[in-house]
TrEMBL record:
This is SPG11 vesicle trafficking associated, spatacsin. InterPro entries: Spatacsin, Spatacsin_C_dom. GO terms for cellular component: axon; cytoplasm; dendrite; synapse. It comes from Neolamprologus brichardi (Fairy cichlid). Residues 1437-1492, 1500-1630 form the Spatacsin C-terminal domain. It comes from the Eukaryota. One of its GO terms (biological process) is synaptic vesicle transport. Pfam families: Spatacsin_C (PF14649).
C-alpha cells in the first residue's frame, strides 16, 4: 500500500452549473441522480422509487404528477409545453424525459375506452408516440434510451420530433476540458507500476463509495454517508502519489453524467455544482475569459452569486487583440464601482457624518492602464479602414464607461472635494482624448456618406438650391460645420472642386460669413454657382452670358471689385445678351455719355423688390443708398444693439442666493456685500456717512479719547451690521465698546453677533493704556489658549504690522501654526525675499514626517532658521524621493512662476501621475528652450534662482524619476523623453542618451537595465554594469544585441564574437548537416569573414582556429581518420597561420610549426587516398565539385606560400638543404607532394618542407641551383660529365626548347650561365616552369643591362614597363612572351598601356621633356598602336581605361582628348564592341556640343566612323527583329523595328550633311528635336521609338501659326483628326495666321467661341450671318 499525501480541501472549488430547482425535492432522499449529455435533462431517483426528471432550463413550478400503476413511481411530467394528459405511465412517455416541444401526433387516448394496462392500450400508445415497446423498464435502460435518442436528434436524419426543437447548446463548462486536472486521452503509457498500486482513503465513518472513475493518470471517487451527509470527493493522482479531498457542506448527492467521465457533479438544494481541483475562483474566471466568452463569465458569476470580481487586464488585452467587444464590456462592467466601492457599505441615512471617503491616486491606478489601453486601441483601429466599425463600437463603449464614472463620482456626496477634483481631472483627460478620436472618426465618415447625398440633391438645380443648403447646414454636425479651407486641406482640393462643382460652391458660400464687408467673397460664390449651372465649362461672366444667364451675370457683377464700372465683362457681349431686356440695356448703356444725362433713378434695392425674402423696405436700413428703407436703423443689427436690447431683452439681476445655489461662494459673498453696502435704508448709516465720521474717530485716537460711537450706533439702530463691522474693524474699536454697541441691534442680529464674538480675537495697538492692553491680551490668551502666540492667522497678520521684520515674523508663525497661507502673505510684504517664503510654504504644505525629514539637517528650530539655497535643495530632494512633486510645483508656481523648474515639475507630474508622455515631452522642450535663452544672455526673471543651481536640481529630478520607475516599460518611455537632455544639463549624472540607446536595444529581450546604471555615474561602475548586460545577452544567445551594447559602451567586442562563434561551432557539430563537407567549408569561411569584418585582433582569432584544429590533431581523442576531416584540419591550420602572420612581429617559429603540422595532415591525406585506391577501384576519392573547388580556393588563399614572413631569401639557397638519401621510397608520398609545390611555383614552401622533414628532393635542388646561377650566387662551372651529358643530349630534343622559343632567345655560346640554365631546365621534372621563368628573366636582364636580383625584386608590371621603354626591335613580341610567362592579369596590362598612352599624348601636346622615351610613340604609326593594344588579352579593357582617363585630361588639350577618343574607338573596333563604340560617340557628341566650336575637324573624323557604325547597328536590328518575329515575340520585334526606323532616319540626315541628332536623346531634348524635324512623319518615327507623346499644339503653333507651313498641317491631318481641344490649346498663343488656322476647325461653335475670345469680330459676324451656321449658333447661344 502506498502512503499517499492526504490533503483536505486542497485548492478545490465548487462551481454552480445548474441553478436551484424545486423539482428535485429533498436532497437527503435522493438515492441516485444522473445528468443527460449536454445538461439537457436531470433525473433524480428517490427513496420510495419516486423518479423526478426535469429540464434544468425549466424554471416553472412542478407540474402535476401521475402515479405509475406498475411501480408506484410518482413522475412529474416536465415539458416545454403543457402536457394534455396526466394518467399515463412512465414507460409510455419516455420522450418526456427529453423535455422536447410537443409535435403533432395522434390523440393519446383512444376514441373507445380501453383498459389502460392491456396490451392493446399499450400498443395504441406506442403507435401514437412513435416509439418502440421495451420490456426493460429500469432506470438505466430508460436513460440509455434517452441518451441514444438525444444523440440521434442531432444527426441530419433526425425524426420530425427531433427537428421540431432547436438544437441545445452545451453547458459553459463543457468547452473547458483543460480545467479538469489530469484528464489525458487514452494511451499505452500508464502511470501504474508493475504489480499495481493501493491507497487508503481517509473519509468519514459509515461512508460508502458511490462512484468511481479511473484514467491512466488518476482515480476520482465519491463517498456518501446516509442522508447524503458529508459527501466527499477524492482525487488520487497516481503520477505524483497524492490524494486530495473535497467535502461538500450540507446535503449533497453525487450526479452521474451519461457518456462522460472524470466529471464530478453534486446535487444540492441550491442546484447542481461541479467540483474542480487545483483551480481557484479567480483562475477559473480568467481562463473562461480567455478561452470562452464574456457572456459565459457573466453567467457563471450570476449563477454562483459571486458578483463581478476583478478581471485581470491581460483578459482585456486579449479581448482587444481578438476584437471581442463582449469581453471589453464585461471587463468594464467589473470596474463599474471601483471608484465608489466603499460607499456601498453605507446608506444615505446611516452614513457617518465625518466619514468622507477619499479618492486617492491609487484608486485610479486600477482604471488608468485599462483606459490607456482602450484609447490606444481606438486610435490604432481607427487608422485602418476595415477596423473602423470596431473602432466606433469600442469608442462608444469606452466613452459610456468614462461618463458613467464621472457621473457616479459627482453624484456621490461622501467623497472629499480634493479627491473628486483630481479624479475628475484624470477622467476628463480621457474624455478629451476619446472625443478627439471621435472627431477623427467622424469627419471621414461624414464626408464619405453625407457629401454624396448633398451632391445628389444638387443635381436637381433650380429654386430648391436654398432649401438644400439649409438641409446641409442643419444635418451637418458641429465638428464638420466649422471646417474651413484654412483648417481642412480637403476643402481646398482642386481635383475635388473640378469633379464636384457644387462642393466648391458650398465652400465659397460658407466663406461669405468670414468677412461680411468684403463683396469679393460674394462675387466668388456667385462664380462657383455658375460653375454648377454650367458643368464642363469655365466659370466666368462671359460663360454665363454665352449660356443665356444674363440677369444672373448682372447680379454677380454688382459684387465684383469696382462693380459694373470696371468693365469686368465685354460690353458688347453684355449689350447683346441684354437684348430681351431693352429698358435695362438702355439704363446700362445710355445713348448719351455717362455723367451728362439725368441721375439714375434705379438702384440694386429696386432690383431686389421682386425678391420676397429680401424686402428692401425692411432690410438693409443701415445702407445709405437704400432709399426704400422705412426703418430708422443706422447700423447693422446685432444682439448688443441698444434699441434691440431695450425693446426685446430680458434683464435679470442675480443676487447672492443664485451664486450660492450654483456653488460660487466668492461671487455670492461679493454680491452680498455690494447689495448690503448699496442698499442702506438711512443716510445716517450709509457708506458715505462712514467716510464722514472717520475724521471724528481719528481725532479721538490722536488725543487718546474714547472713540466716537455715533456712526456705529446709527448702524445698530438701522440693522446695518455689515457697515457696523466694517467701521469698527477699520478703526480698531476696543472690544468692550464693540460689545456694548452690539447690544443695540435687534434680538436676531444681536444673537448672531454674540455668537460671532465668542471666539473673536481682537488686537489693540500699543497706543492703548497698559490696563486696557493687559485686558485685551487676557482676552486673546483666553481665546487662543496659548499665552505665547496668537492662535489665528489674521491675528498673526495684524501682529506682524508692529514687528520690525513683518515678513520674518509671518514665516515664523507659518512654521509654528503649520499655515502655508502665512507664507504667501509674507511674500506680499514689501522687500520680502521669495526663497524663504518658498521653503516655508513647501514645508508647511506637507505632512509632519516629510517636514521633519526635510529639516533634519538644521541645528536649530525651523522657525528660527535663515533659509538658503542649500535648504531648498534638501527640501527638493526629500519631496521628490517621496513622490511629492505637487507641493513643489504649487510652491514654485506661487513664488517662482518664471523659474524653468516649473516646467520640469509639470513634466514630472505628467509622467508619474498621469503617464502622459506626449505632453511631458512638450514641457521638456519648453524647459530646454528656456535654459538656452537664459544661457545666451536672455533676461532673467526678477528674484530668480541661479541658473547653475536650477540645472543641478533639474538633474536631481530627472535622476529621481528614473530611480522611482516601477517597470522597465516606464524606464524605457522616460529615457526616450530624456534622450536629448545630456547636451543641456551640466551635471555628473548618468548619460541619458546612452541609457536610452541601451533601453532601445534591450526591448524584447529578457534582460533589463540594471538599477546601478541609474544610480551611479562612476565610469568604473558604468563599464561594469554594461559588461554584465553584455554577458547576460550573450548567455541568452542575443549576440547581435550584445555586440551593439558593447559598442555603445566602448567595450571590446572580439571576445563576444569569438564566444558566439564557439557556440555556433558546438551547435553546428550537433547537426546532421555537419557531415557534409561543403557545410564545414562554408562555415569556416563565414567565421573568417565575420572576424575580418569585425576587425578582430589577430592573436585571439588565430587561437580560435588553432583550438578548432587541435581538437582533431593527430594523437588527440578526436584525431581525424576520415579524409574530409583531414582536409578540414588542413584548412583550419591555414586559417590559424593566416591570422598569426598578421601579428607584428610575426612569430616565425609558430608559423613553421603550423606549416609542418599541416604537412603532416597532407601526408596523411595522401596515404589514405592511395590506400583507398588500392582497396577498391570504386573507392575513389571525391571528385571535383563546387564545394571541393571552394575548399581548394580557400587553401590557395590561406596557403603558407602567401606568408611573406616565411618567404625569406635563406630558403632559396642550397645551404642546409638535405643531401641524397639511401631510402627515398619511404618518403615517396612527401616527394610527390613537394613536386606539386614546385609545379605550382611555391619554391619557398618546397624548400621549407624539405628542411622540416630532412628530405632530399632532386628537383628542389635543381630549381634552387637554377636561381642561384641566374643571380650569380653560385659559380657557373660546368657539372660533372655524368650529370652534364644527359642534359646536352636532350637539348635538341627536349620539348622545353620549343616552348622557350616563343619568349626566350637561344643562349649565345659565350654565355656559360645561360647554357647551364638551359641544362637545368632540361633536367628538371617538377618546377620546370619556374626554371623557364628564371631563364627568361636572365635573358631579359641581359637585354635591359640590369642585374637579375634587381629585376626579381621588382613588380612584374615595372619590368614590363622597362621592356616596352627599351629600343628592342621586337619589344612587343618579347613583352607578350613576358606577360604570358609571368601570368600578368589583363586589367593590370590595360592600366599600364592606357596610362602610357595618356602620358605620351600629354607630353607631345605640351612639349614637355622632348628627349624622354615613352611606351606609346605616335610617330610609329597605327601598326605599333595595334600591337601595343593587343598586349592585353582583352582590348576592351584598354578602351574603357582610356575613357576613364578622359576626366584627367585638361580641357585646353582638346587635341589630346580627340586622340584618346579615336584610340578608344580603335580598341572597341578590334572586338566589334558596339556598346563601347556608342560610348565613344556619346562622349564625342557631348564634347562637340559643349566645348568644341562648330565645324571642327573632329566631325570629319567622327562622321565616317559614325555612318559605318550605324549601318552595322541597322543590320543587327533587322536581324534581331526577324529572330524575335520567328519566336512570336511581337513586342520585342516591334521595338527593334521602331529603333531601326530611327537609325535609318539618322543615316538619312547624315547623308544629307545635316547635323541634326535624333539618337540617344534625353527626355528633355525630345520636344526640341520634334520642333526641328521638317516633316510630320519624322515626328511620328521619333515619338514611336522613344514612346513619347508629342505636344502637337506647340508644334503646330511653331510650324503653322508662326511660320505658316500649312503643308505640315495637311500632312498631320492625314495621320490623325484635328480635334477642338487641339485648337483650344493652339489658341492659347495666337498671332497672324489664326484666321486661316480657324478654317480647319470643323466645330462651328468652337470656331465662333475662339474667334470671339480673340476679338476676331469679322469671323463671328460672318458665322452669325451665314445661313449654314446662323441657326445652329442661335440655338447654342440661346441655351
Amino acid at each position: 500500500m502506498l502512503e499517499a499525501d492526504q490533503r483536505l480541501q486542497a485548492g478545490s472549488t465548487e462551481v454552480a452549473v445548474i441553478p436551484e430547482n424545486q423539482h428535485c425535492g429533498d436532497v437527503a432522499d435522493v438515492r441516485k441522480a444522473e445528468l443527460a449529455p449536454g445538461g439537457s435533462l436531470l433525473g433524480c431517483l428517490g427513496v420510495r422509487g419516486q423518479l423526478v426528471v426535469w429540464d434544468p432550463a425549466d424554471r416553472e413550478p412542478s407540474p402535476a404528477a401521475v402515479e405509475d400503476s406498475d411501480c408506484d413511481e410518482l413522475i412529474p411530467l416536465c415539458t416545454a409545453e403543457q402536457i394534455q394528459s396526466h394518467d399515463l405511465s412512465f414507460r409510455m412517455f419516455p420522450d418526456h424525459l427529453l423535455c422536447a416541444a410537443p409535435r403533432s401526433r395522434p390523440p393519446l387516448q383512444p376514441q373507445h375506452p380501453r383498459d389502460q394496462d392491456s396490451l392493446s392500450s399499450s400498443s395504441f400508445s406506442i403507435s401514437a408516440l412513435g416509439a418502440t415497446f421495451s420490456t426493460d423498464r429500469s432506470w438505466e435502460a430508460r436513460l440509455n434510451s434517452m441518451y441514444s435518442r438525444a444523440k440521434q436528434a442531432t444527426a441530419p436524419s433526425s425524426s420530425c420530433f427531433a427537428s421540431s426543437q432547436p438544437p441545445r447548446t452545451s453547458s459553459w463548462f463543457s468547452s473547458l476540458p483543460h480545467l479538469d486536472p489530469h484528464l489525458a486521452p487514452s494511451s499505452s503509457h500508464s502511470r501504474v507500476p508493475p504489480g499495481g498500486m493501493t491507497v487508503a482513503f481517509a473519509v468519514p465513518e459509515s461512508s460508502a463509495s458511490s462512484q468511481l472513475t479511473v484514467s491512466e493518470f488518476s482515480a476520482l471517487l465519491t463517498f456518501v454517508r446516509p442522508g447524503n451527509q458529508q459527501t466527499t470527493v477524492a482525487l488520487w493522482d497516481m503520477e505524483y502519489g497524492n490524494v486530495r479531498y473535497h467535502q461538500a457542506a450540507g446535503e449533497a448527492a453525487p450526479v452521474q453524467r451519461c457518456g462522460e467521465r472524470q466529471h464530478r457533479l453534486l446535487l444540492k438544494k441550491a442546484g447542481v455544482f461541479q467540483v474542480l481541483f487545483s483551480v481557484s475562483q479567480q483562475d477559473l474566471l480568467s481562463r473562461l475569459m480567455l478561452f470562452g466568452s464574456a457572456a459565459t463569465v457573466d453567467a457563471v458569476c450570476h449563477l454562483n452569486s459571486w458578483g463581478r470580481c476583478s478581471i485581470p487586464i491581460h483578459a482585456l488585452q486579449t479581448g482587444l487583440k481578438n476584437r471581442q467587444l463582449d469581453t471589453v464590456d464585461f471587463y468594464l462592467k467589473s470596474k463599474e464601482n471601483v471608484l465608489n466601492s466603499p460607499a456601498a457599505a453605507f446608506s444615505s441615512a446611516d452614513q457617518p457624518a465625518a466619514s468622507a471617503l477619499s479618492l486617492t491616486d491609487s484608486t485610479l491606478q486600477e482604471l488608468c492602464p485599462a483606459l490607456d489601453l482602450l484609447c490606444s486601441a481606438v486610435r490604432d483601429s481607427n487608422s485602418e479602414a476595415q477596423s473602423r466599425q470596431f473602432s466606433e463600437q469600442l469608442l462608444n463603449i469606452t466613452l459610456s464607461f468614462v461618463n458613467t464614472q464621472i457621473r457616479s463620482v459627482l453624484s456621490n456626496t461622501h467623497h472629499e472635494d480634493s479627491g473628486v477634483q483630481s479624479c475628475i481631472n484624470v477622467l476628463d483627460r480621457y474624455v478629451g482624448e476619446l472625443r478627439t478620436c471621435f472627431c477623427l472618426r467622424f469627419l471621414p465618415v461624414k464626408r464619405e456618406f453625407f457629401l454624396p447625398t448633398v451632391a445628389k440633391l444638387f443635381s436637381h438645380r433650380g429654386s430648391h438650391d436654398c432649401v438644400v443648403v439649409v438641409i446641409w447646414c442643419k444635418h451637418y454636425e458641429p465638428p464638420v460645420h466649422r471646417l474651413t479651407p484654412r483648417n481642412c486641406s480637403l476643402l481646398s482640393s482642386q481635383s475635388l472642386s473640378e469633379r464636384q462643382p457644387w462642393f466648391e460652391m458650398l465652400v465659397r458660400i460658407q466663406e461669405i460669413t468670414r468677412d461680411l464687408s468684403d463683396p469679393g467673397l460674394v462675387f466668388q460664390a456667385s462664380l462657383t454657382s455658375a460653375q454648377v449651372l454650367l458643368p464642363g465649362s469655365q466659370a466666368s461672366l462671359s460663360s454665363l452670358l454665352l449660356e443665356g444667364h444674363s440677369l444672373l451675370t448682372l447680379a454677380a457683377i454688382m459684387f465684383a471689385p469696382g462693380g459694373i464700372d470696371q468693365r469686368t465683362v465685354d460690353p458688347q457681349l453684355l449689350k447683346m445678351a441684354l437684348a430681351p431686356h431693352p429698358k435695362l440695356r438702355a439704363a446700362l448703356f445710355p445713348a448719351v455719355p455717362r455723367g451728362n444725362g439725368p441721375p439714375s433713378d434705379i438702384s440694386v434695392y429696386h432690383l431686389l423688390q421682386s425678391l420676397l425674402p429680401l424686402d428692401p423696405s425692411r432690410l438693409f436700413g443701415w445702407q445709405a443708398a437704400n432709399t426704400l428703407n422705412s426703418t430708422e436703423t443706422s447700423e447693422l443689427p446685432h444682439f448688443s444693439s441698444a434699441h434691440l436690447v431695450q425693446r426685446f431683452a430680458l434683464k435679470e439681476n442675480l443676487d447672492y442666493l443664485y451664486f450660492l445655489h450654483h456653488g460660487r461662494p466668492s461671487f455670492a459673498y461679493a454680491t452680498f456685500l455690494v447689495q448690503q453696502l448699496s442698499g442702506s435704508g438711512d443716510v445716517r448709516s450709509s457708506y458715505e456717512a462712514a467716510q464722514e465720521w472717520a475724521l471724528a474717530v481719528q481725532f479721538c485716537q490722536l488725543h487718546n479719547l474714547q472713540l466716537s460711537s455715533v456712526y456705529p450706533a446709527h448702524c445698530a439702530h438701522d440693522g446695518q451690521f455689515i457697515h457696523f463691522l466694517l467701521f469698527v474693524q477699520l478703526h480698531n474699536f476696543p472690544p468692550q465698546q464693540v460689545r456694548s454697541l452690539a447690544a443695540q441691534f435687534g434680538p436676531t442680529l444681536q444673537a448672531h453677533l454674540s455668537l460671532a464674538f465668542q471666539d473673536l480675537q481682537v488686537y489693540c495697538k500699543k497706543s492703548c493704556d497698559s490696563d486696557e492692553q493687559h485686558s485685551v491680551l487676557r482676552t486673546e490668551e483666553a481665546a487662543s489658549g496659548s499665552p505665547e502666540r496668537p492662535g489665528e492667522m489674521f491675528q498673526a497678520l495684524l501682529q506682524s504690522q508692529e514687528e520690525p521684520a513683518p515678513c520674518r515674523y509671518l514665516l515664523q508663525e507659518a512654521v509654528v501654526q503649520r499655515c502655508p497661507t502665512l507664507a504667501v502673505l509674507a511674500a506680499c510684504m514689501q522687500g520680502a525675499e521669495l526663497l524663504p517664503c518658498l521653503c516655508v510654504w513647501v514645508l508647511t504644505s506637507v505632512d509632519d514626517v516629510t517636514a521633519e525629514e526635510a529639516t533634519s539637517h538644521l541645528a536649530q528650530a525651523p522657525q528660527h532658521h535663515e533659509w538658503t539655497l542649500h535648504d531648498l535643495s534638501i527640501i527638493w530632494k526629500t519631496l521628490l524621493g517621496r513622490s511629492l512633486a505637487r507641493p513643489l510645483l504649487r510652491g514654485f508656481e506661487l513664488f517662482q512662476k518664471d523659474c524653468p523648474l516649473v516646467l520640469v515639475l509639470r513634466m514630472f507630474e505628467l509622467c508619474c501621475d498621469y503617464r502622459n508622455f506626449a505632453e511631458a515631452k512638450s514641457k521638456l522642450l519648453d524647459f530646454q528652450r528656456t535654459l538656452i535663452a537664459l544661457r545666451n544672455g536672455g533676461p532673467a526673471p526678477p528674484g530668480g534662482l541661479p541658473l547653475q543651481w536650477v540645472e543641478s536640481q533639474a538633474s536631481v529630478l530627472l535622476l529621481t524619476m528614473l530611480q522611482r520607475c516601477s517597470s522597465q516599460y516606464d524606464i524605457h518611455r522616460l529615457l526616450q523623453l530624456l534622450a536629448d537632455v545630456d547636451k543641456l544639463l551640466k551635471s555628473n549624472g548618468p548619460d541619458f542618451r546612452k541609457l536610452n540607446q541601451l533601453s532601445q536595444l534591450l526591448q524584447g529581450s529578457e534582460v533589463s537595465i540594471s538599477p546601478r546604471l541609474l544610480q551611479s555615474s562612476s565610469p568604473s561602475v558604468q563599464q561594469e554594469e554594461f559588461q554584465a548586460t553584455v554577458d547576460a545577452l550573450q548567455a541568452r544567445g542575443c549576440y547581435s544585441r550584445a555586440r551593439q551594447v558593447a559598442q555603445l559602451a566602448g567595450l571590446p567586442v572580439h571576445r563576444l564574437l569569438l564566444s558566439q562563434l564557439l557556440q555556433e561551432v558546438s551547435s553546428q557539430r550537433s547537426k546532421r548537416q555537419w557531415g557534409r563537407f561543403e557545410t564545414r567549408v562554408g562555415f569556416w569561411k563565414k567565421c573568417h569573414e565575420q572576424l575580418e569584418a569585425d576587425g578582430t585582433d589577430p592573436d585571439p582569432a588565430s587561437q580560435f582556429f588553432l583550438s578548432q584544429a587541435e581538437a582533431g590533431a593527430p594523437g588527440s581523442p578526436e584525431a581525424p581518420e576520415d579524409l574530409l576531416d583531414i582536409q578540414e584540419h588542413c584548412l583550419l591550420l591555414g586559417l590559424a597561420a593566416h591570422w598569426l602572420s598578421r601579428i607584428a612581429p610575426a612569430p616565425v617559429d609558430k608559423l613553421e610549426s603550423l606549416e609542418k603540422a599541416q604537412w603532416l595532415s597532407r601526408i596523411r591525406k595522401r596515404i589514405l587516398t592511395v590506400a583507398m585506391e588500392k582497396e577498391s577501384v570504386f573507392n575513389l576519392p571525391p571528385a571535383a565539385n563546387p564545394e571541393m573547388n571552394t575548399h581548394k580556393a580557400l587553401m590557395k588563399e590561406f596557403s603558407f606560400s602567401n606568408i611573406t614572413q616565411l618567404n625569406v631569401e635563406g630558403y632559396l639557397g642550397l645551404e642546409g638543404l638535405p643531401g641524397p638519401s639511401d631510402d627515398p621510397e619511404e618518403r615517396s608520398v612527401l616527394a610527390a607532394l613537394i613536386g606539386q609545390l614546385l609545379d605550382d611555383g611555391s619554391i619557398h614552401e618546397a624548400s621549407r618542407v624539405c628542411r622540416y622533414f630532412s628530405l632530399y628532393h632532386p628537383d628542389v635542388w635543381l630549381v634552387l641551383r637554377c636561381r642561384g646561377l641566374a643571380s650569380g650566387e653560385l659559380s657557373d662551372e660546368p657539372q660533372e660529365d655524368g650529370a652534364e651529358a644527359p642534359a646536352r643530349a636532350s637539348l635538341t630534343s627536349s620539348p622545353s626548347v620549343s616552348s622557350l622559343s616563343s619568349f626566350v632567345m637561344l643562349p649565345l655560346p659565350e654565355d656559360e650561365v645561360a647554357v647551364q640554365l638551359q641544362k637545368l631546365v632540361d633536367q628538371c621534372r617538377h618546377g620546370n616552369n619556374y626554371c623557364k621563368q628564371v631563364l627568361s628573366l636572365y635573358q631579359l636582364c641581359k637585354e635591359l643591362q640590369c642585374s637579375f636580383s634587381s629585376v626579381c625584386g621588382e613588380e612584374p608590371c615595372s619590368v614590363l614597363e622597362k621592356l616596352l621603354l627599351s629600343e628592342q626591335p621586337e619589344r612587343f613580341r618579347k613583352a607578350r612572351a613576358f606577360v604570358k610567362a609571368q601570368g600578368l592579369s589583363a586589367d593590370a596590362v590595360a592600366e599600364l598601356i592606357s596610362s602610357a598612352m595618356v602620358q605620351a599624348l600629354l607630353a607631345s601636346s605640351q612639349e614637355l621633356h622632348p628627349g624622354e622615351r615613352h611606351i606609346f610613340r605616335p610617330l610609329e604609326g597605327r601598326d605599333a598602336l595595334v600591337q601595343l593594344i593587343k598586349l592585353c588579352d582583352d582590348p576592351n579593357l584598354v578602351g574603357l581605361k582610356l575613357l576613364e582617363h578622359l576626366n584627367s585630361v585638361p580641357l585646353r588639350d582638346l587635341n589630346c582628348i580627340v586622340e584618346l577618343l579615336i584610340m578608344a574607338h580603335d580598341c572597341f573596333s578590334l572586338t566589334c564592341n558596339m556598346e563601347g563604340i556608342v560610348r565613344v560617340l556619346q562622349a564625342a557628341r557631348h564634347l562637340s556640343h559643349t566645348y568644341l566650336p562648330p565645324r571642327l575637324v573632329l566631325s570629319s573624323v567622327i562622321t565616317p566612323e559614325l555612318k559605318s557604325s550605324l549601318v552595322k547597328v541597322l543590320g543587327l536590328l533587322k536581324d534581331a527583329a526577324e529572330s524575335f518575329s520567328k519566336d512570336s515575340c511581337v513586342r520585342q520585334a516591334t521595338r527593334c523595328i521602331r529603333t531601326a526606323k530611327l537609325v535609318a532616319l539618322q543615316l538619312h540626315f547624315l547623308n544629307q550633311g545635316s547635323d541634326l541628332r535624333i539618337i540617344n536623346l534625353r527626355p528633355a531634348e525630345l520636344l526640341s528635336a520634334a520642333m526641328a524635324l521638317p516633316r510630320c512623319y519624322q515626328v511620328f518615327v521619333v515619338s514611336e521609338a522613344y514612346g513619347y507623346s508629342p505636344d502637337w499644339a506647340e508644334i503646330l503653333y511653331q510650324k503653322v501659326v508662326l511660320h505658316g507651313d500649312f503643308g505640315y498641317l495637311e500632312e498631320l491631318k492625314r495621320h490623325r483628326p484635328l480635334t477642338s481641344a487641339l485648337f483650344e490649346d493652339i489658341f492659347k498663343n495666337v498671332t497672324s495666321n489664326v484666321k486661316r488656322l480657324l478654317t480647319y476647325c470643323d466645330d462651328v461653335y468652337s470656331r465662333y467661341r475662339l474667334a470671339y475670345q480673340q476679338n476676331l469680330h469679322d469671323i463671328t459676324k460672318m458665322l452669325l450671318q451665314d445661313a449654314k451656321t446662323s441657326s445652329y449658333l442661335s440655338d447654342r447661344l440661346g441655351s
